[in-house]
Amino acid sequence: NGLGVLRYDILNDTWLAPWDSTTNLLDSNGVTALVQDINPSRIWVGGDMGLNLIDVGTATLVVDWGDGGNSGGINLPQSSPAELVIIGDTMHYSMVRNGWDSNDYIYRYDIVNLTQKSTIDAGASEGYTAFVHGIGAVDDVLHIGISPTQWWNGDGHLVMWDATTEQWLQSVES
Question: Which tens digit of pLDDT belongs to each residue from 139-149?
């Protein structure tokens, strides 16, 4: 966080110039998450600047979404992404945890049509307000590690969202 995107040329064993706010690819250097786009020559960069899609072959900015409202009806949360996970044509955005505030909404974006999809509430799937500790994908299932914001409500769950059927699967209690 604070350096932009550091780049390394593995063929020539040398560091390349970083992509940061001085390169016009990022509005700030506060990068918190990266994920390869479904187009393998592009990468999504998330952080306190919002979400940017960069073509790594041409070093050009393809999409620049700031926090809040953007063109095409895209709304990004005010919190930076902790993780970005792509399943099919959908990018899932989990927010950085901020103290004792819940971060259990997972924002979803259609990255082919550049539109917003419905937000899923990972905590509500188990009936409580939750902290998200991490997200990841196995095949077409988004796995989300959660725990209640009040410790007396239990230890937590691994909740699973089927990205194909857009339904919650059976969770696993921790």
Answer: 999 999 999 99
